[in-house]
């Protein structure tokens, strides 16, 4: 039961945050040429979903017979995920704030008319 719960939650959560941040980055990109930045969240999601979570699930199934190599792989994928995560999170939120600032500035310049 615990393994099933872990698998479901570890699948839904990465899909949710990957979709949110990829959408933010794509929708609020600064120029047309930066659309490719929206691929950063799916790379992190792949590291999380397909690589790290598979290793963790395998360790749960094999417990207490877990090899050092498997632990090293799971740790490496976790590290990659945690290095990439702040990059796309800051990028997504930064682009959203930039777009909001531009919209507010444009509204002020037009005299507050809708």
Mean pLDDT: 85
User: How many helices in DSSP terms?
Assistant: 3
Compute the number of structural domains: 1
Gyration radius over CA = 19 Å
Task: Say what oligomer this is.
Answer: single chain
Helix proportion range: over 70%
- Strand share of the residues? under 5%
User: What's the order of the H and E elements?
Assistant: HHH
Low-confidence stretches: none
Distance between the termini: 54 Å
Largest sheet: none
Number of extended strands: 0
Structural class of the secondary structure composition?
A: mainly alpha
Outline type: elongated
Kindly describe this structure.
With about 110 residues, this protein is an all-alpha fold. It has one domain (about 1-110). About 80% of the residues lie in helices and about 0% in strands. It has helices at about 1-25, 40-60, 70-110. The radius of gyration is 19 Å and the shape is elongated. The N and C termini lie far apart (about 55 Å).
Short summary:
This protein is mainly α and 114 residues long. The chain contains 3 helices and no strands.
Secondary structure: elements and pairs:
Blueprint: H1 2-27, H2 40-62, H3 68-109
Helix pairs in contact: 1-2, 1-3, 2-3
Features:
114 residues, mainly alpha, 80% helix
């Amino acid at each position: 039961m615990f393994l099933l719960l872990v698998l479901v939650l570890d699948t839904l959560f990465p899909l949710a945050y990957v979709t949110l941040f990829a959408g933010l980055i794509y929708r609020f990109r600064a120029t047309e040429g930066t659309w490719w930045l929206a691929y950063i969240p799916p790379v992190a999601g792949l590291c999380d979903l397909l690589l790290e979570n598979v290793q963790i699930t395998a360790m749960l199934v094999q417990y207490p017979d877990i090899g050092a190599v498997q632990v090293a792989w799971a740790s490496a994928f976790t590290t990659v995920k945690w290095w990439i995560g702040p990059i796309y999170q800051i990028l997504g939120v930064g682009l959203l704030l930039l777009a909001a600032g531009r919209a507010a500035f444009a509204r002020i310049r037009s005299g507050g008319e809708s």
